[in-house]
Design brief:
48% of the residues lie in helices and 14% in strands. It has 11 helices and 9 strands.
Length: 273
């Protein structure tokens, strides 16, 4: 248990819900390892086939809690060569708390209402798919407090949106509204309110959870590799990947279920030892 989010399960759907609306769901230092460990546990366990991340209150999250920057002096110290080496290690570990969304073998769907600000946008950008409410907005807040964003948003947003728009957001810190986010491809759909948003995302999660978890995991591996490599290298990776995960029994069950108009019965992925 932690003070930042609830993690629940509905069959093969895992639901991680931020639950500090009175603090705009801000991310204190302890949030990051708790979040990383929760997502990693879903990856390791194998039972969950899709993860939905949502929030409570008016805003999805206002990002890193500002008092973090006035906290541990050692954590933020860059005053010497030794301090800078430690700073680099600490920052890379912090980045890894969102990298886990990318490397998880289950798809991650992000449901965003209200503000998705600063570190929250880093988190959302690392998810597989994003959906939002009509009142949602997105902001690279770090530039407004005198720093470059450093938890992945500058690396991931250019693969989700046009380069020029990403640079405008990164340089100005201005808000990107829901309608424009949909137009640019940052989100897949805009829903009228938080209830409609969660219902929509859960329906998609149920559709994903009904598919072969082996095929879904393989598809995510292939898509991630293709995103980060050229076509020739990605096709070569696909030949190796498909030879590893091709399962005629899985296909037979999927086809039989489709013909019989029933839900397929797939074995969960094996736990990671």
């Amino acid at each position: 248990m932690n003070d930042f989010f609830r993690l629940s399960h509905d069959g093969a759907i895992a639901h991680l819900e931020f639950n500090r609306p009175e603090r705009m769901n801000t991310m204190a230092p302890a949030f990051f390892p708790a979040f990383r460990d929760a997502v990693q546990s879903l990856h390791d366990g194998g039972a969950a086939r899709v993860l939905v991340i949502s929030s409570t209150g008016k805003h999805f999250s206002a990002g890193m809690a500002l008092d973090t920057f006035a906290g541990d002096g050692a954590l933020l110290d860059t005053g010497s060569a030794r301090a800078r080496l430690s700073f680099q290690d600490g920052l890379r570990r912090l980045m890894g708390c969102f990298d886990v969304l990318d490397t998880a073998r289950l798809p991650v769907l992000c449901a965003i209402q209200g503000g998705c600000i600063g570190g929250a946008l880093d988190l959302a950008a690392a998810c597989d798919v994003r959906y939002c409410t009509a009142d949602a907005f997105f902001c690279v807040q770090e530039i407004n407090i005198g720093m470059a964003a450093d938890l992945g948003v500058l690396q991931r947003l250019p693969k989700l949106m046009p380069q020029g728009m990403v640079r405008e957001l990164a340089y100005t810190g201005e808000r990107l509204g829901a309608a424009r986010a949909l137009e640019l491809g940052l989100v897949n759909a805009v829903l009228p309110d938080a209830d409609a948003l969660l219902a929509h995302v859960m329906a998609i999660a149920r559709s994903i959870a009904a598919k072969s978890p082996l095929a879904i995991a393989g598809s995510k591996l292939a898509l991630n590799h293709a995103r980060d490599h050229g076509t020739a290298a990605a096709l070569q990776q696909m030949t190796l990947l498909q030879s590893a995960i091709f399962d005629t029994g899985e296909m037979a069950e999927a086809i039989a279920a489709w013909k019989d108009k029933r839900e397929a019965a797939f074995e969960a992925l094996h736990p990671v030892p």
